[in-house]
Amino acid sequence: MIDCPGVLSFYHSFVKDEYIFTFFPLYNYGSCYDLLSSEFHHGLPIQLVAVVIRSTILALEYLHDFGIIHRAVKASHILLNSCGNVCLSGLSYSLLLPKENQIAYDYPKHAVQMLPWVSPEILQQNVKGYTYLTDIYSLGITIFELVSGTVPFHGMKPTEILLQKLCGVVPQFPDYSKSLDSQSDIVISQSSLDGFENDTEYTTAAPILQKHKRIKHLHQLVDACLQLDPSARPSAYQLHYCLYIRHVKRKQKEKDFPSFTTMLNPLEPVTKFIPADGSYLESNSPTIVSNEAWLFPS
Fold this sequence. Notes:
33% helix; 15% strand; alpha+beta; disordered C terminus; 3-stranded antiparallel β-sheet
């Protein structure tokens, strides 16, 4: 049984007529996709992105330890609430790896709908199959989505996306410049991101990189996640202990670290629900306060 704060659980489910009804915990800010669609069209606040990335990595580490591939990591499957909790949902798309070789060959039925997030090795459909490292690729695409507000390969035809992925094309952030026009402006650093490639500091990089040193480490993390060769990608465990995530963990412990309510201002969390009869229930109603649950049809 899955028991992890960062993975969506359910309280109870039952069948009525031809429907399955399930009680889920209430995440009153909705999903990251909801936030991007409603207010943060150009990307979530960078501090919030950092918290979401760390929580998602911890959730994936937990699932992978149980031999489960999520197969649907994306902004719409990452939920938030006003208590500062981040939760990974979408487990209906997951797959339990066989214990023998830990390799999957099943082609997901939802692959076409989730093409921008699907890893190249799934699309290749060859005898090599795929492993839990497919989730790491999806994580890289999701980080891009959270930071920029745009899904990579957006607006492209499915065949174009397929070719881009199989050729190893890596989406680049708008402010991520790797121009080598001025070699004198490039300084090679001996520091590394805990096992990732040695990073290169660009003194003439875009202003956001000059202002936020950690953005460089975030770019490096994304590049590592989006490697065409799955074996070149870090595991969730390795990401958990990389420099960027360790920095996020330290920042979260600081007393002045902003709350979700502050970071998501002017958005407000859901406080009431309007049933079909037009009446409404406050979020502190005894009907749902005991477990912060609401009834959702699956």
